[in-house]
Write a structure and sequence with these properties.
alpha/beta, 38% helix, binds nicotinamide-adenine-dinucleotide
């Protein structure tokens, strides 16, 4: 068991607390200082978790779905009841100010409950005089869940709820940067499920590749960067594990000249800088029509200067630090590159000197091939880009290896909807940002993903189809098919 002066964090394996010989440091990004230790799972620990999940699968897959739903609802209720303490822990490891941290905990509980409103369907593809053909969706086995640090709880729930609801068992791994809230949730809800159904293990950089290579997993559900997603896919290919990959994005917002700038400026700003711009579906390139460009830019700059950024544990701060040092250095590098190549930067208000803080920064109309435009910043540096021709701006928005989401802003919703249909992304919002629901699939186009999460399609990713041909005639009297299955 790993310790912080007064707090300990254990992994969950086979329904019990699991100890490790080694630990990893966990830092508070608002100070840069180590404040806790998390267990560092070894290959043996992983083997034990997979063995427990494998043993539990046989019973869990035949457990009636209503019992599985009840277990998940019970777990959601426990998370909800502990939201205050979990949110305080979340702030320390993730950095987000407390109201947003609590919203994620409560959102995770809500999502878990809402997912139980879904059912695994049985499709009937033929029901004739001679036979009935049913397509069942059966669970896959042991699922490997790997989660990033930007929304550690919600994105874990997006894996826990559908995987277990569909009848699989799970070994979940949080990011080494944000393991604690997930480990604590594991401790709180481990008794809601039969031993081995739900396992949580934590560790350093070596653990993810060990998991994706492990032969005991039938499926990997991964959320993280596109670069890591490609490694996960390569590793899964060796034994054809099923995969769902939710990856990076470089989302465009297209702002039409008819918007009421004063009415939408705050929303445009939040769509880019929510969670200190560490959101996969945040606006990362904002295309603003030339007629209103200066007005929008100046409003956004005023907001950047007025928005308090600081330690999430202190009341009044709207945005926190960048979550970890590597990401902090990456964002600083992009800003340095923009400065070195002569781009105009518009800086927000001052930020604390200690910790991983960067002022909210706008880049004034850089060329489309600037690094800050082409790369996913995943931090508070937003390029503002001028446009005049609609076809041209749609082409520029689509000119990306990513295709996660996007937004169109206009007083004319029909026109905006037509533009939405032209964007090569998995999701488009009109006059809003960052929306998702438990019943709507999130699916990245191009290099933003493979497969989907949420909704019935997301649930079915944790199953495989199994077709059963049931005759209505006595055996021996059924004619062979004229076209046989190949
Ligand atoms: P990351 O890819 O560095 O890490 C994600 C997870 O993968 C972590 O748990 C990490 O420990 C693990 N990991 C690292 N290397 C691995 C390997 N070789 N094999 C297996 N696992 C490995 O991503 P991050 O920096 O934690 O998260 C930020 C990225 O995630 C951004 O690109 C963001 O856009 C993306 N993201 C996507 C979505 C989505 O739904 N599409 C949601 C949130 C974040």
């Amino acid at each position: 068991m790993a310790t912080l002066a007064t707090e300990t964090f254990s992994m969950t394996i086979d329904g019990s607390a699991a100890e490790t010989a080694r630990t990893i440091d966990v830092r508070n990004p608002a100070t840069g200082e180590v404040f806790a230790q998390a267990p560092d799972a070894s290959a043996d620990d992983l083997d034990r978790a997979v063995a427990a999940a494998t043993a539990a699968f046989e019973r869990w897959k035949t457990t009636p779905i209503d019992e599985r739903k009840a277990a998940l609802n019970n777990a959601a209720g426990i998370i909800e009841a502990h939201a205050k303490d979990l949110a305080a822990l979340f702030v320390k490891e993730q950095g987000r100010p407390y109201p947003g941290a609590k919203a994620e905990i409560l959102g995770g509980a809500m999502w878990m409950k809402a997912t139980t409103m879904l059912d695994v369907p049985v499709e009937v593809t033929e029901d004739s005089d001679t036979r009935r053909v049913e397509v069942h969706h059966v669970p896959l086995g042991v699922v490997c869940g790997i989660v990033p640090w930007n929304f550690p709880v919600l994105l874990a729930v997006w894996k826990i709820a559908p995987a277990l609801l569909a009848g699989n068992t799970l070994v979940l791994k949080p990011s080494p940067f944000t393991p604690l809230t997930t480990l604590r949730i594991g401790e709180l809800i481990r008794d809601c499920f039969p031993a081995g159904v739900f396992n949580v293990i934590s560790g350093g950089d070596a653990l993810g590749p060990l998991m994706t290579a492990h032969k005991g997993f039938a499926k990997i559900t991964f959320t993280g960067s596109t670069a890591t997603g490609k490694r996960v896919m390569g590793s899964a290919a060796k034994d054809l594990k099923r995969i769902t990959l939710e990856l990076g994005g470089n989302d465009a917002a297209i702002v039409l000249p008819d918007v009421d700038v004063d009415a939408v400026a705050a929303q445009l700003f939040e769509g880019a800088f929510h969670n200190t711009a560490q959101v996969c579906v945040a606006t990362k390139r904002m295309f603003i029509h030339a007629d209103i460009y200066d007005q929008v830019r100046d409003r956004l700059h005023e907001l950047a200067k007025a928005t308090p950024v600081g330690d999430g544990a202190q009341q009044g701060n709207r945005y926190g630090p960048i979550q970890n040092e590597a990401q902090y250095r990456r964002v600083l590098d992009l800003i340095d590159d923009a400065r070195a190549t002569g781009l105009t930067l518009l800086e927000g208000g001052s930020v604390p000197q200690r910790g991983y803080f960067v002022p909210l920064t706008l880049v004034d109309n850089p060329p489309d091939d600037a690094r800050v435009v082409v790369e996913e910043a995943f931090g508070p540096v937003l390029p503002l880009l001028k446009w005049t021709d609609l076809d041209d701006v749609v082409a520029r928005a689509n000119d990306s290896e990513y295709g996660l989401a996007g937004a169109v802003w206009s007083a004319d919703v029909d026109k905006a909807t037509q533009i939405a249909h032209r964007l090569d992304t998995g999701t488009v919002w009109i006059n809003q940002n960052l929306q998702s629901t438990p019943f709507t699939p999130l699916a990245g186009a191009k290099q933003s993903g493979f497969g989907q999460e949420n909704g019935l399609p997301g649930l079915l990713e944790f199953t495989r189809p199994k077709s059963i041909f049931i005759p209505k005639q006595p055996a021996g009297t059924i004619p062979e098919a004229e076209v046989a299955a190949p």
